[in-house]
Every structure is written in structure tokens, then in C-alpha cells.
Write the C-alpha cells for this entry.
Amino acid sequence: MKSRSDIIQVDRLECRISNYDWAFEKDRAQDILGHWRASTQRNPSLYDGRILLAQRIEADLSDAERVLRVDFFETSFSAFMAWRDFGWPDKTIFNCFSQAAVCAREGAFLLGEMGSDHSNAGAFYFPCGNPDLSDVRPSGAVDLRESLIRELREETGLEAREGQEARDWIIVFDGQRAACIRRFDWPVAHTALKKRVDAFLAAQSQPELSGVVFLKDPAALEQISLPPFMKIYLHSAFRSAAGMNFRSVQYKLPSVT
């Protein structure tokens, strides 16, 4: 497992579902229920579906092929939300998910603002979501690539096949989060992409995003609400665009205690 805030590059993901008895979910069931009731009173749109969290993450960077191996388990969204909002009390568990980093022709990245019915309303992210049971294949493999393709389509109306997909994954470790980011370069200007996504959102009765912005200036990262792992990736991407090799970039936040 990497340090508390770090970034690495891998060639592929090797993810699977596993049987795991999460002590936090069992031992703090009443706390989870109370937190969920309070959360749904504030935001009735929240849904307590089944999602996947990671109970083991291992980065194998020793061979020619760099691999991230992840063992997932099934849990409830309410348990995840309580674990997150209580300050990640179980440090053996990780919120591992995939994101699509859509980059327009001139180097501007698409960021979506979470809608009012989202548990992170107002924050900006790449299109993403927690993996769920629909990402589990009959073999037991968990397909994070298909997860991000689905989220990109559902949140923006964009089809991943329209962009040029990177061959590698950038993994950002930020405390208990592990963001698996795949870049997609679109051969059109950001203004055209924004117009298309705006039209898609306007046609939705309940869009997941309240809007999108495009960023290509590192200074703009401090002007919107971005989680730390997003800042880590974007700082590194902008440095890479300036001629730095992504493998050499190590942009670290202060250690989490």
C-alpha cells in the first residue's frame, strides 16, 4: 500500500470481489442507522443501494507490467457514508473507484459539479461513482473500466469510445480514497464539448450534475471546491503537459494522521 497521499502509474487493474465481514458495519449498526436517518432528512433523494469498497489494495511496480490489485467487498451506501463522515475510523478499508478524465483538444479538463441530491453536493469531480454489483463479472472480476464508462455516459451523455483512451491508469491515493483515473482525449474544443454536455443535462428530469466546467489553468484549481485527490491529479497532469514525465511526478499532501 502506498503512502497516505501519493500518485502512481500502472498498466492495468486486477480487481475481484471477495467475501469479507466488515466489523464496522456490524459493530456500529445503530450509529450507521442514526446517521442515515439524519442524512435522509436533510436530503430525501439519497438511496441506500449496495456498493463495493476495498479491503485490500496492492500496487505491484516491480515487473515490466505495473499492476494494481484490489479485493472488493459488498456493503451498503449508508455504511459507507457513515464511515466517511465519521472520519474513516477503519483505516484498513478503502474507497476505491474509477474516474474518466476527459480532456478537450486544447488541454482543458471536464469537471462536473455534483447536484443538490448528491451526498457531495457542490463539489467538483471527474465523472465517477462508487463501483457496484453491476460491475462484478461472472468470473468474480470487478470491471472498473466499465464502471467509469457507465458513469461518464450517465452523468454527461458522452461515450468513452469517442475519445482517445490512454493505455495506462493514474492512481491517486489520498487517505482512505484510491482514485483510479483513465484519461480520454477528445478531438474537439472544450466549448463544443460543454455545449453538448449542457444540452444533455438540460434534457434530464433529474441530472446527476448541476453543471460542468473546463479547467486548463492550474491557478483555477483553488477557485472551485475540489477534493484533494482531484488537485493531486490535475497538478500532475498540467505538469506533464509542460513536459514532465508522469512517472516522475510525486505531488504529496501533508500526511493524514
Residues 242-257 have pLDDT under 50 and may be disordered. The helical segments are 23-27, 29-42, 77-85, 144-156, 190-203, 228-241. The CA atoms of residues 150 and 159 lie 9 Å apart. The radius of gyration is 18 Å.
